[in-house]
Amino acid sequence: MDSDKKQAIINQYKQSDKDTGSVQVQVALLTERINHLTEHLKTNHKDNHSRRGLLQMVGKRKGFLLYLKEKDIEAYRALIKSLDLRDVK
Question: Where do the domains of the chain lie, and which CATH numbers do they carry?
Answer without folding.
Answer: 3-83 (1.10.287.10)
